């Protein structure tokens, strides 16, 4: 049975898809994926992202614009003005993202860049609230700091903490502040015990599925490229929105609800989180 699914986080505008973006979308559609939220990372890439989302015909692409913390050194104050302009002029934007804080790499947390990460995160939270948009949060080793920023600016609009990797307690704190949690490829790895506990203990209303493609390839796809070639040492397998069912199936194995209940919930949660203009979930015809 193939269920209608929505990918709540996929970087379909990434260079990795430039050679075959159309085929990737068709492959996703053939696996039941009917729509994708495409978060932005740099101001210079937003116009292309918006154009790609507008021209997609095979499936729905919903754009978000944001300044990603991994590229904090590149962002300028003028980029924040550009973000405000897009929020004013482009009604199809469904969120501000991908934004957040990242403490994983030493280069990102020099005193100056760590201060800049927090300033840009807070200013984008303020813009999202002014324009009544949810946010897409990237949070790596920075959950307490993210919560402090949210409280400091009084952000109440909510959104998603994507590729969530914190504790159950941190998960509950985000939910209490109106956020849902996005889970993807990492959940499919059998050793992901803490994440799997979160996937089962958190109420279904607060969960989304995502691929984060081209990154975070699911466990079952980790050793082969899309054309069937075996991955060589040192090569990375490109993740694809067509692999979203692998994330969905992991949820089906872990949780007590039926696949139909899960598929309906993920669909409704994604639609609600991003206020998507979308037809209601319809069950596939049984063969
Ligand atoms: Zn991302």
TrEMBL record:
Pfam families: TatD_DNase (PF01026). It comes from the Bacteria. InterPro entries: DNase_TatD-rel_CS (IPR018228), Metal_Hydrolase (IPR032466), TatD-like (IPR001130). Keywords: Hydrolase, Metal-binding. A divalent metal cation 2 binds at residues 138, 162. One of its GO terms (cellular component) is cytosol. The keyword Metal-binding applies. The keyword Metal-binding applies. PROSITE patterns: TATD_1. GO terms for molecular function: hydrolase activity, acting on ester bonds; metal ion binding. Belongs to the metallo-dependent hydrolases superfamily. TatD-type hydrolase family. PANTHER family: D-AMINOACYL-TRNA DEACYLASE, HYDROLASE. This is TatD DNase family protein.
């Amino acid at each position: 049975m193939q269920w209608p699914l929505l990918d709540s986080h996929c970087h379909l505008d990434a260079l990795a898809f430039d050679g075959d973006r159309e085929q990737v979308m068709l492959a996703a559609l053939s696996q039941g994926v009917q729509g994708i939220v495409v978060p932005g990372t740099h101001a210079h890439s937003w116009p292309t992202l918006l154009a790609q989302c507008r021209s997609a015909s095979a499936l729905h692409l919903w754009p978000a614009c944001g300044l990603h913390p991994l590229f904090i050194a590149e962002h300028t104050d003028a980029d924040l003005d550009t973000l405000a302009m897009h929020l004013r002029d482009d009604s199809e934007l469904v969120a501000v993202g991908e934004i957040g804080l990242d403490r994983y790499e030493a280069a990102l947390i020099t005193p100056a860049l760590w201060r800049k990460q927090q300033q840009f995160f807070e200013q984008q939270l303020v813009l999202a609230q002014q324009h009544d948009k949810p946010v897409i949060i990237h949070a790596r080793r920075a959950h307490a700091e993210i919560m402090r920023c949210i409280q400091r600016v009084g952000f109440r609009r909510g959104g998603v903490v994507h590729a969530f990797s914190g504790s159950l307690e941190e998960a509950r704190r985000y939910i209490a502040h109106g956020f849902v949690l996005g889970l993807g490829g990492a959940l499919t790895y059998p050793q992901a015990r803490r994440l799997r506990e979160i996937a089962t203990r958190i109420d279904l209303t607060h969960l989304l599925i995502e691929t984060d493609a081209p990154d975070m390839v699911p466990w079952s796809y980790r050793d082969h490229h899309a054309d069937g070639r075996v991955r060589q040492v040192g090569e990375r397998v490109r993740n694809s929105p067509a692999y979203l069912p692998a994330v969905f199936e992991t949820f089906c194995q872990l949780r007590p609800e039926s696949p139909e209940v899960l598929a309906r919930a993920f669909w409704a949660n994604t639609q609600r989180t991003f206020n998507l203009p979308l037809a209601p979930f319809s069950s596939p015809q049984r063969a």
